[in-house]
Amino acid sequence: MRKAVSLSLFVPVLVLLALAVVPSLAGGYATGLALKIMIYALFALSLQLLVGGAGLVSLGHAAFFGIGAYCAALLTPSAGPAPLWWLLPAAVLGAGVYALATGALALRTRGIYFIMVTLAFSQMAYYVFHDTKVGGGSDGIYLYFRPEPALGGGLLFDLSSDTAFYFFALACLALGWLFVGMLRRSPFGAALAGIRISEQRMRAAGYDTYPYKLTAYVLAGMLAGLAGFLYALKDGFVTPELLAWEQSGLALLMVILGGLRRPGGAVLGAASLVLLQELFQSEAVFGTYAQHWHLSLGLAIIALVALLPDGLIGLPARLRGTGKPPGMHAPAHACAPDDAGEETAAPGRADSARDGAARGARPTLVASGGPHG
């Protein structure tokens, strides 16, 4: 167990260190590509918290991504940069408020109905920015100045520098990854795992599952708002397409491609999808076939999902011959998040969530406070 935890902590650190040396070893194109990967990885991590953590599949997650981007653009004065210390929280809270308002209603539904309601709320936000003058309508809006991280009258660092902004985005990804990993291994994360395994049994055991799901929904929305904030600062331009359902589908595809059960899977899925897009669009590699890159990308994704049902993050285990064959899955009660959000045996958490009601005992998912009914 300790060896698995050490490895699960070593891999994220190694990935972050590799990203940190990109600006010094690669050119501007590679650095820009790495920056795009980091932002989408943060976006995918926010959705992974819902899908992999609580089993809530949302097709409206792009709304929070776009709202975070629009808050950054709309709240930045045209005369000069805004202070980072209030612009960033405003973008994150703006996405969180919309997540709270929509999640309070969407989470009253389940299954396919939840998916459709989240899609409807996302499209509502899309049309607000697309069909009105808010944010420049369909033409979008420019962000001419990146915010200033000033403290005591002086700048801590200059975000107008592409290198400084790159490391700022890297720090945001590291904190977001750490946050999701710690959340998944906390009593709250264990409660979400119990809801994912069997919400009905959690309720039978005395837990009010609605507050847990709503909290996860809001936290995921705020994390997506942070990713949108970074996206706006990267390009200096925001359009309503950031809120379109295609963006939600893209994030969901990243989570599925990388692996549903581990936060690292979202990061790996984001990197893989962005790199595959760049590869299939390259005329130097595919010549005139690059014009049909959507077809090539689709076929590649179908092949990867079919061959790796556990996602790309499960590839090492499959190569070692310890992975599960397609269609075979470990018992749900044997899985709970460990230190980095990995799925490992934890009978005191997910096992009690799944089987506590059957045994007539109260589950031990929450360390303090007990169930809330």
TrEMBL record:
Keywords: Cell membrane, Membrane, Transmembrane, Transmembrane helix. Its main location: membrane. One of its GO terms (cellular component) is plasma membrane. One of its GO terms (molecular function) is branched-chain amino acid transmembrane transporter activity. The chain crosses the membrane at residues 38-57, 62-80, 86-107, 112-129, 164-183, 210-230, 295-315. Residues 329-338 have a biased composition (Low complexity). It is a multi-pass membrane protein. CDD domains: TM_PBP1_LivM_like. Pfam families: BPD_transp_2 (PF02653). Residues 324-373 are annotated as: Disordered. It is found in: Cell membrane. InterPro entries: ABC_transp_permease, LivM-like. This is Branched-chain amino acid transport system, permease. It comes from Bordetella ansorpii.
